[in-house]
Amino acid sequence: MVSLARKTLRHEWRRFLPAMLAVGFATLLQLLQAALVLGIFGGAAVYVSDSDADIWVGYPGTQSVDQGRPIASDIASLLEMNPQIKSVEPFYLLDGDWRGGHDTGGVSVFVSGVSTQPGAMMFSRVLTPAVRARLAYPESVVVDPADLHKLGVQVGDTASVNGHLVRVVGTARGLRALGGANIVTSVQTARLLDPSPSESGGPTYLVARLRHTGDAPAVVAQLNGHTGFGRYQAWTASAFARLSILFWLFNTGAGAGVLFLAVIVFAVGAIITSQALMAAVAASVNEYATLNALGVGKRALRWVVLEQAFWVGACGVVLASVLAALLIWLAHSENVPVAMQPSVAAGCLGLVMALVAVSGLIAMRSIRRADPATLLR
After folding, report:
1. Per 3-state DSSP, what percentage of the chain is helix, strand, and coil (rounded to 5)?
2. Beta strand 140-143 pairing with 55-58
């Protein structure tokens, strides 16, 4: 019966092609939807995911990395005294009012003040050593190339942030943020651009690199159990990135809208897939009736239907995966915020195959009509 199912699909492929295409498009929609969700809301954690710090220390109760508030500078001493911590850096994150030079009006930006030392942790995955070195010049900034048009500048142009003159000295891909443009500069320039009173000018975060990355949860527990250095809270980098993404996904209007759209996409894909597969099986009732007349039992025919559903789903999933990979690559090359994780892709494909299996089980009801007597009508 195994070879019978495959032979039927091979010789009657036109009959099953609509179901295969339906599974393929449903899979493609789910993969692209997941890629957009990960790409858009992953931008909320770009400060964490584009850096190689193991531990983040910030204001207690912070729900997302962009919601940070200044902390006391002397907390750095507590981190430096911990023998498991290799190095510590301050990270300043503040809001800014950008005024470009090409009639773009005001643009809200996030100013990131980072260390310019070689091997620094912040944005280590997007800033090359040469670009980071340029930030050592006073009042120099780096932006994402995709934001140049929005900011109304080109590399070498000047603009103002919070009323202070800055110069764009380079670009770095991967800095795009959710809700605004990211401007990266040195710690010294960030403090100059900070409109807050000087007495509240502590860093927004302290980031630390450990001697052994696997010790991060234990070190975080030690830091959070310590008192006497003011108010702060420590997170592992992975936990802080996940916290930021979940905050934007479940606590903002944009997240609720995207989740609602994802549910609609899944429901439409499920309906189209199941109907197309059941129609293909129903169209084969006469063939099943012939097989039944030749002595093939209905139990065996049900297994044929299930295997046909499996192969239809597998072919649609493979075709959609290849097409989705090409589209995600194309979107990424055009600076569209997309991202994909193996676990998420596997979840989407597993969901589609489960849907195909359920559709196959429902389609098995057609076998009840596969009576040899119907061939005589």
Report:
1. 55, 15, 25
2. unpaired
Q: What's the farthest any 2 CA atoms get from each other in the chain?
A: 94
Per-residue confidence (pLDDT) for residue 265, from 0 to 100? 76
Single-letter residue type at 330: L
On whether the CB atoms of residues 203 and 94 are closer than 8 A, the answer is: no
Which helix (H) or strand (E) is 47 found in, with range? helix 46-49
CA angle 216, 48, 140 (to 5 degrees): 130
Closest CA to 122 of 172, 63, 75: 172
Q: Which amino acid is at 325?
A: A
Question: What backbone torsions phi and psi does residue 208 show, to the nearest 5 degrees?
Answer: -135, 145
Q: Which residues pair with 164 in a beta bridge?
A: 161
Amino acid letter for position 289: A
Rounded to whole angstroms, the Cα distance separating 27 from 6 reads 22
Coil/strand/helix, residue 90: strand
**Once rounded to an integer, what is the mean pLDDT over residues 13-21?**
81
Cα distance between residue 185 and residue 135, in whole Å = 6
Q: Which amino acid is present at 136? A: A
Q: What's the rounded Cα separation, in Å, for the pair 141 and 159?
A: 10
Return the structure tokens found at 220: 């975080």
DSSP 325: H
Mapped onto helix, strand or coil, the DSSP state of residue 139 is: coil
* Angle of helix 13-42 versus helix 237-250 axis, rounded to 10: 110
Q: In which residue are the tokens 């940070």 written?
A: 68
Q: What is the pLDDT of residues 49-63, one digit of tens each?
A: 889 999 999 999 999
State the pTM of this model: 0.74
Range from 100-109, 120-129, 329-338 carrying the lowest mean pLDDT: 100-109
The tokens describing 21, both together, are 């295409």
Please, is 130 exposed, middle or buried when counting C-beta atoms within 10 Å of its C-beta (0-12, 13-18, 19+)? exposed
